[in-house]
Amino acid sequence: MTEYDTIVVGVGGMGSATAAHLAKRGENVLGLERYDIPHSMGSSHGVTRIIRKAYYEHPDYVPLLERAYELWDELDATHPTKLLHTTGCIVAGPEGSEKVAGARESCETHGLAYERLSAEEVDERYPGYELPEDFVAIFEPDGGFLHVEQCVVAHVNEAHRHGAEIRAREGVLDWEPTADGGVRVETREGSYTADTMVVTAGAWAANLLPMLRAEARPERQVLGWFQPDEPEAFQPDSFPVFTMGCEEGYFYGFPEYGVPGYKVGKYNHFHENVSPDDVGGPTPADERVLRDFTERYFPDAAGPTMRLETCLFTNSPDEHFIIDALPDHPQVVVGAGFSGHGFKLSSVVGEILADLAIDGESRHDIELFSLDRF
To answer: Is 0.70 topped by the overall pTM?
Structure first.
């Protein structure tokens, strides 16, 4: 039986960052991933993920985002493929909408640079946009996107450089606490023990920790890429990433990068809670909701479909993260329930989870994410 300081279960966005931070601190780390590294079965794929500081979800995320940016810059310096791309970010919606107001509140609370733009100003500055006259926008110059799969690769490479052992295609079958206050983890390949365990298993977290079944619920998402009729208007230097609230729902999108086409998704899509092992592929109905939105608000991007892809959100009841030690087993730390807005923060979440695994506490303010709020 092999012994470690910490076992990290799930080596996607959060787990790869956690393994890297633990290994950099000299911990003997084992990372276990049931699929490939990276893979397209969970939440850490699809080429791009938005990163922004104007956080309408809650102003308390902003200090964590500022640290996340620092850590992404540090990781970028170690990796041959650029990870963080700055395009600016637009949060748009009708005058007085909750998301626009929340983004502005975060900017003003934390002194972030931003502009308030009318729909006309957005459309003139960025020709790919065609916002309704009654829309307004918060433009954040520091927003952009992360190259999601390469972020996972970069964190795994960093973990390897500092001595971590990462095993792909080795899913965890079960775990149990040991008499000495550690954990024993069983896989098809063997049995491992450690002082602590960090569970970053995404949509599969509740399979390992049944107490999370109501607090970390998988939800099916679909992403679409459409080839623009005017490609020059949808490049990273001419098209900021966006999040937008409108009568059709709440959407987000990206310039063309990595694969052909402008990319778009709808938050919570059809509100389908699913088993992570039975998500199903994209359907014509999935494509239609993304195309209808694009035709109305980004008509020059509504060319042929290039790609459709499913992914997963894992939602908490209040859509804030779950980052805590288990009350009955403090040697087990969980990062879950990232509710579709976690990847941008994975660099700092990894730092926090490493803090909790080693010290039982973190210098970061994580009260918002405690398990005892449920």
So the answer is: yes
CA nearest neighbour of 168 among 152, 145, 184, 147: 152
CA proximity to 254, closest of 100, 76, 118, 87: 87
- Per-residue pLDDT tens over the stretch 169-214: 999 999 999 999 999 999 999 999 999 999 999 999 999 999 999 9
Specify the 3-state DSSP secondary structure of 362.
coil
Cα gap 123→48, rounded to integer Å: 23
Alpha-carbon distance 364 to 73, whole Å?
Answer: 19
Task: Copy the structure tokens of residue 52.
Answer: 């922004």
Taking the C-alpha atoms of residue 59 and residue 286, their distance in angstroms, rounded to an integer, is 32
309, β-bridge pairs: 223
Structural domains in the chain, sorted by start:
2-44+149-213+318-373 (3.50.50.60), 89-141+217-313 (3.30.9.10)
Question: Do residues 245 and 98 make contact, with C-beta atoms less than 8 angstroms apart?
Answer: yes
Q: Is 352 exposed, middle or buried (0-12, 13-18, 19+ CB in 10 A)?
A: buried
Half-sphere exposure (CA, 13 Å, Cβ side) for 34?
A: 22
Q: Are 164 and 20 in contact (CB under 8 A)?
A: yes
Tokens of 168: 């792909």
Sorted by sequence, the CB contacts under 8 Å of residue 328 that are 6+ apart come out as: none
Query: Could you tell me which of 258, 297, 294 has the C-alpha nearest to residue 137?
Result: 297
Strands (E), the chain: 2-9, 29-32, 48-51, 84-86, 89-94, 115-118, 135-140, 144-147, 165-167, 172-177, 183-187, 191-199, 217-226, 241-246, 249-254, 262-266, 305-315, 322-325, 332-336
What's the Rg (C-alpha) of the chain?
20
